[in-house]
Specification:
The structure holds two protein chains of two kinds. By secondary structure, chain A is an alpha/beta fold. Chain B has helices spanning 43-47, 54-57, 188-197, 209-216, 247-255, 284-289, and strands spanning 2-8, 14-15, 22-23, 28-34, 38-42, 65-66, 71-74, 85-87, 92-97, 103-107, 111-116, 121-127, 131-142, 145-147, 150-157, 179-181, 185-186, 201-207, 233-240, 260-264, 277-281, 305-308, 317-322, 328-329, 335-336, 338-342, 348-352, 356-358. The chains are: A alpha/beta, B mainly beta. Chains A and B meet through helix 3, helix 4, helix 9, helix 11 and helix 12 of A and helix 4 and strand 25 of B.
């Protein structure tokens, strides 16, 4: 960063280049403190006919300029930098997730063993695994080579052989990939990164196999012995290579890098920064989610351990069709409280996939998108739980018995009962027309248990603040506290299952504006107004078998935070089960939609 | 327009043409031999012995050529009895015998691999030992989504106008090997019949996702296509559902009916996007006149022609009538910047700016 006196910085411009939308925010010094003042957005322009990410940046920044009455872009289409009294900005920073996520191929000797480990490592690093190549995958070598060429992966992870074991077949895999010379998706100068995480004895031979057309990294074997998986080094290497090679070749990225005052940070990295800051300063367990067009990133801090997963194939535009394929249409439609024509919906989903920048115009389209979002979030959280295990970063032990099963070993450290704060970010959550919708999406997808505070990133600025914290911590902290986090309220939810209409718990709420007591039946959902900045004491007496944090059936009393939505009492049980039958499901969903006042003004 | 395409072998080989040569789409421009198929045989399992003992039991040795039925290995048996013989089910050469895994690798005969020219044109460049760049004057039409790989054939118009749906009865036996042009949605029954008839490819305005699922046999998740083995290449030019092909695209294809055409359904929707293509080689004169109804880059202004790309007005084309600067509240309750579109009928609608694409007027 240039040498600037932090106190003299008055205008900060920050952009986040998402896979679908480029968001720009303006932070200005108002009096003695920094405040976020204006925002703008424009479609990301990595695709033809533009193929230059900076055009989207300019468009988003121009919108901010129009709203702020300040010119940021000169006649040559360049950012005005540094600022004058009426024009330009003092600091410009950016994050980016443009590129549509990371797309990889993995290879191993035996499909069910080393290739499967390689796949787990790639998935854990947040990649879409486009294909798995193995000596025994029943395809002819030239078909495998042709497949590598056709798919244009961003990188390839090769595994194979335990340390000290077979080297020939490992080298054979490398010999299969070396002649393929896949053409990259980003320009001609790109050298395909290949990560080798196989038998250490084979590493020198593998090195000999590849020429200077590829960027080879050699890391520790991800399957050093048959009974152990050591995915950490391969996963880290994938992240590094992604940032250094793949992102840097997104169209126009080279130009963008020359504009910024700090290195461009990948969006998930920046959001992770901010979430860790919140959890550490408040001494709480937190989960954050950022749902984008191509990917859904989940971040968690439990007992000070930070974990991040990037579900590269779960998103609301590029990957929307994959969400529908993975979740299946009936699972999505269970969140919709009226009839929808499935044939038409399928076409809509595909049309969104092929033209990712469109937005829902009608209420019906919005309700459907929010249904898809619940499933994307649910699946992403499921993946996160599977990867955030007690053995994070160290060798993960798998018994011989586990070797042939695909279950992920290790105990998850994600515990919904211990979760204190759930933060929502990303277009479909941050831009939901009503915050009650955001709250409901979070509760339905994450199924928080006990007492959980819900918040949202007001206008999707966590990534911007994450990178700003690196260059101007004071401004980042001030804006974060005053403008970024909007508390939605608190969800108090019962863990356990019961019968519809039977008692679940009784409650007593005492606060300055709220004094309520009553009983909740299993399946009920209730919303109480408890405004921003307000608190209340909530005492819960659970029925037998229901838990709120003190154990089944045990009374609990906690102070809760209010917010723009309020206090939500949820007696729907955990795990959350919806009726299988469509008609009953619709009626149940309708009841919950009304209880949460999600879509007011809707015809009954 | 001048179209260039790179045609390269998966591994180094021989280039069969030279710069300036005229080639036809199906001509082989480069060829090579790939190492033969690899067949691993788990000999330790078959002989029920530890991997370390396998090399001692092998009758066939590394580098030896074997035929189907040849004895590969023989176990010592017990006191000379109950010997177990393993015969080869494949022909080839013994490549390795592993004392670590007990695997025997048999490599089959080399496989010839050829690369075709893809389109009628001239060789513009030779990449030594790899392939060539073919150049031709073409009419180039980009689809929005497709499945299936490269194929060729003369253009045959199955529909009479751009808004006509492509139904089964419009597919006839004499369309074998052709690139069929439909109008609006292509029906599953039409696709099925086309596959039966042996049609090379179908180009039409739209397809129903449910029909696509039937054709593929699975629900398409991530839009990375090109290697499907559906027996046909399908390209849609507009989108999913009942949507008519842009009139201009239809007319352009119609004006080239009978011309030998190369098509490729391969689509990758992500950064570095790849869309399906229809490439009609032309004489230089005709090339100047040809242009599809492509999406264009530009600014939204009053009078600009746009296509609405999201429901409830999906597929409709009109002119920008008004560009209010302030964000408006949509039916969904969201706030967004909008524009007003006027259709030919005179009706005007308001849609989010994000839900239109500019098209050539």
């Amino acid at each position: 960063m240039k040498n600037l006196d932090p106190d003299k910085i008055k205008v900060i411009l920050a952009t986040d280049c998402g896979s679908t939308t480029t968001k720009a925010i303006l932070i200005q010094k108002v009096g003695d403190s920094y405040r976020q003042t204006h925002r703008g957005e424009a479609p990301t322009t990595v695709e033809e006919p533009f193929a230059d990410v900076t055009m989207g940046v300019i468009n988003a920044v121009t919108e901010v300029g129009e709203l702020a009455g300040r010119r940021f872009v000169d006649d040559d289409g360049k950012l005005i930098h540094p600022a004058t009294e009426t024009e330009g900005c003092d600091i410009y920073i950016s994050t980016s997730s443009a590129g549509g996520g990371l797309q990889m191929m993995v290879a191993g000797v035996i499909k069910e063993m080393t290739a499967a480990s390689a796949k787990r490592a790639a998935l854990g690093a947040g990649a879409i695994v486009m294909d798995t190549i193995a000596s025994n995958d029943k395809r002819k070598p030239h078909d495998q080579i042709q497949r590598i060429r056709e798919l244009r992966p961003d990188m390839i992870l090769i595994s194979g052989g335990v340390d000290g074991g077979n080297t020939t077949q490992v080298v054979q895999i490398a010999e299969l990939i070396a002649p393929a010379k896949p053409r990259p998706r980003f320009g001609g100068k790109y050298r395909l990164p290949i990560i080798f995480a196989g038998n250490k004895d084979a590493a020198p031979l593998v090195k000999e196999t590849f020429d200077e057309d590829v960027e080879l990294s050699i890391v520790d074997n991800l399957r050093p012995v048959l009974e152990y998986e050591n995915l950490g080094p391969a996963r880290d290497a994938i992240h590094d290579v992604f940032l250094e090679h793949v992102m840097a070749h997104a169209p126009g990225y080279d130009k963008l890098m020359t504009w910024t005052d700090a290195p461009i940070m990948p969006t998930p990295g920046a959001v992770g920064n901010i979430l860790q800051t919140i959890a550490n300063t408040q001494g709480i367990n937190a989960v954050g989610v950022d749902i984008g067009g191509a990917t859904t990133d989940v971040f968690s801090v439990f007992d000070k351990t930070f974990n991040r997963t990037v579900s590269a194939n779960l998103g609301m535009s590029y990957s929307i069709s994959n969400v529908c394929a993975e979740a299946t249409m009936p699972k999505i439609l269970r969140w919709v409280h009226f009839d929808m024509d499935e044939r038409e919906l399928r076409n809509r989903v595909k049309n969104k996939m092929i033209r990712p920048t469109t937005i829902p115009q009608t209420r019906e389209a919005l309700i459907f998108e929010q249904a898809v979002a619940r499933e994307a979030l649910r699946l992403a959280y499921q993946q996160h739980k599977e990867f955030a295990t007690t053995l994070k970063g160290v060798q993960q032990q798998r018994t011989v018995g586990d070797t042939f099963s695909q279950q992920v070993g290790g105990q998850t450290i994600v515990d919904n009962m211990k979760l204190d704060l759930l933060v929502a970010s990303g277009g479909v959550l941050s831009h939901a027309p009503r915050m009650n919708q955001t709250a409901m999406l979070l509760i339905d997808a994450f199924e928080p248990e006990g007492f959980t505070t819900l918040a949202k990133d007001s206008i999707f600025m966590m990534p911007h603040l994450g990178v700003l914290a690196e260059v101007h911590p004071k401004a980042a902290t001030e804006v974060f506290e005053k403008d970024c986090l909007i508390y939605l309220g608190t969800c108090v939810a019962a863990k356990g299952t019961g019968k519809e209409g039977r008692p679940c718990f009784s409650y007593e709420i005492k606060g300055s504006s709220l004094n309520e007591r009553g009983e909740m039946m299993y399946g009920d959902l209730k919303l109480f107004p408890l405004g921003q900045g307000e608190t209340a004491m909530v005492a819960i007496d659970p029925a037998k078998g229901f838990d709120f944090g003190n154990g089944p059936g045990k009374r609990i009393e906690r102070q809760v935070k209010g917010g723009t939505v309020g206090l939500i009492l949820d007696a729907r049980g955990r795990p959350l089960a919806l009726p299988e039958d469509r008609a009953t499901g619709q009626a149940t969903m309708k009841r919950w939609v009304e209880a949460m006042n999600m879509y007011p003004g809707e015809k009954k | 327009m001048t179209f260039r395409t790179r045609r390269v072998l998966p591994i180094p080989g021989d280039v069969l043409v030279k710069v300036g040569d005229k080639v036809k789409a199906r001509d082989v421009v480069a060829q090579t031999f790939m190492p033969g198929d690899v067949t691993p045989i788990n000999m330790a399992n078959l002989l029920s012995m530890p991997p370390g003992d396998v090399p001692g039991c092998m009758i066939a040795k590394e580098g030896q050529t074997i035929a189907v039925g040849d004895v590969l290995a023989r176990s010592p048996g017990i006191f000379g009895f109950f010997k177990n013989e393993i015969k080869s089910k494949v022909a080839g050469t013994i490549e390795t015998i592993s004392p670590v895994t007990g695997q025997v690798i048999v490599r089959g005969a080399p496989i010839p691999v050829q690369v075709g020219a893809y389109l009628n044109g001239a060789v513009a460049e030779v990449i030594p030992n790899e392939g060539v760049v073919i150049e031709a004057e073409v009419a180039f039409i980009q689809g929005i989504f497709g499945i299936g790989g490269e194929t060729f054939g003369p253009i045959r118009m199955a529909c009479k106008q751009h808004a006509q749906e492509l139904t089964e009865d419009l597919i006839t036996d004499d369309m074998k090997g052709c690139v069929i042009v439909g109008g609006a949605r292509m029906h599953y029954t039409a696709v099925k019949k086309a596959i039966r008839v042996g049609v090379a490819a179908i180009v039409s305005g739209g397809i129903d996702d449910a029909d696509l699922k039937e054709v593929l046999g699975y629900d398409l998740g991530v839009a990375i296509t090109g290697s499907e083995q559906a027996g046909i290449t399908l390209i849609i030019t507009e989108g999913f559902g009942d949507i008519a092909m842009a009139e201009r695209t239809f007319e352009l294809l119609d004006s080239h009916k009978g011309h030998e055409t190369a098509v490729n359904g391969a689509t990758q929707i992500r950064a570095g996007v790849m869309r399906p293509e229809i490439v009609v080689p032309l004489s230089a004169v005709a090339a100047d006149k040809a242009a599809g109804a492509r999406n264009v880059a530009g600014l939204l202004e009053v009078g600009t022609m746009v296509r609405i790309i999201r429901d409830p007005y999906f597929g409709l084309i009109g002119a920008v009538n008004n560009l209010p600067p302030e964000p408006a509240v949509l039916g969904s309750g969201s706030k967004a910047r909008v524009l007003e579109v006027r259709f030919d009928s005179g009706e005007t609608v308001t849609v989010p700016r994000a839900n239109v694409e500019l098209i050539e007027g």
